[in-house]
Amino acid sequence: MKIGVVSLGCCKNLVDSERMMGLLRQSGHEIVSDVHEAEAIIVNTCGFIEPAKEEAINTILEMAEYKNENCRKLIVAGCLAQRYKADLEAEMPEVDCFLTISDYPKMGQILTRVLGEKVLDGYGKNTRLVSTKPWTAYLKIAEGCDNRCSYCAIPGIRGGYVSFPIEDLVAEAKQLASEGVKELVVIAQDTSRYGTDLYGRRRIWDLLTELNAIDGLHWIRVLYLYPDEIDDEFVTGIKDLKKVIPYFDIPVQHGSDKMLKLMNRRGSVESILRTVKLIRANYDMPVLRTTMIVGFPQETEEDFQMLINFIKEVRWDRLGAFTFSNEEDTPAYTMDGQISQEIMDERLERLMTVQNQIAQENGEALIGKTLEVLVENQDGLTGYYHGRGIHSAPDGIDGLIKFKSSHHYQPGTFAWVKVTKAKHHDLIGIDVLDAEEIAA
């Protein structure tokens, strides 16, 4: 059977989609990228915040139109299905099956019944069908979350934190490396907590040590590190792991202690600043990335100014910010002091104006530096190669490095580039080999 899979939301959801596709391919089905050809379509949804839910609903309705062509079965999986299954079943009769996350262990049986063709059991135990660029892949090391931030619906959707065994993760990473993956991106809702449920203590450093020893991997990037779990042992320990790049993705959410407490975030602004200082004391050129929420209930102008001052003090290399999304089934949903969308949007604009200036200045500070670049493509019109340095994760948020070279680079190979210009979040440079030849 020809099956199309549409994956929405975060990279953690993408791994689930890749596991579905691997299971289907192992069962003898053909995965097609053109939904016009698909006899069945699976939409793996996000249901985290309102914009993601809207995107999911619109995508489902769009895919339902293909039932007028070749598509015979439309299946909706993922967070939206988990969170709103009963409501969706009542409102969307064009969908043949809502496959919740709780159903995943029985995915083979359910899909066999819905599709009318055999799908094997064993979801998550088969080889994934990697859908990212072939040199980069995500490694999801845990499911769920125990942090219980007051704005977040994830624990209610995905359940509590469950670490996957180290031996299974190492075997998966070795398989990915054997298929040509050079950049492994380690993910979970909270990577820094890895192992606490399974082994009784944090074992993220142990896991990274084993991943570091895998032949073929060149970069190991870790996302979603919570600040209160980053200590001296972790920061100094990974310095010895040469493949683990100093890219610290630390979602802190705010710069006011009052707001952090209302959000049920562990730690304080002072502790976050200590963590930043620790990282910068141990690395010459670390990358610090974070996310912020503006407009959380009871955020005053004074709180917002504290956030701005905090951003100016830390000078994050990468920062994403979002207006508060009021989600049912979270403690924040009924909090007093809800902020109007107009005020939230205005604060977001002010925040990003400050951050964009910081990002530009941080980029300009890299002029003259030599950076290793993972080459991903070449622009046919300008001839510039496009790639990513350690400053940029593969999620399309962090910007690119663009460079010219008289030498030929295949996508998925590495080059050394001397930075000559910074433009917003992108860097522009020249191949070091060319620079040396010009100097000679």
UniProtKB/TrEMBL annotation:
Key words of the record: 4Fe-4S, Cytoplasm, Iron, Iron-sulfur, Metal-binding, Ribonucleoprotein, Ribosomal protein, S-adenosyl-L-methionine, Transferase
Organism of this sequence: Holdemania filiformis
The keyword Ribonucleoprotein belongs to this UniProt entry's keyword annotation: yes
Binding annotation for [4Fe-4S] cluster 2: 145, 149, 152
Locations listed in the record: Cytoplasm
Segments forming domain MTTase N-terminal: 1-116
Protein name as annotated: Ribosomal protein uS12 methylthiotransferase RimO
EC number: 2.8.4.4
Reported cofactor(s): [4Fe-4S] cluster
Domain of life from the UniProt record: Bacteria
Top-level EC class as recorded in UniProt: transferase
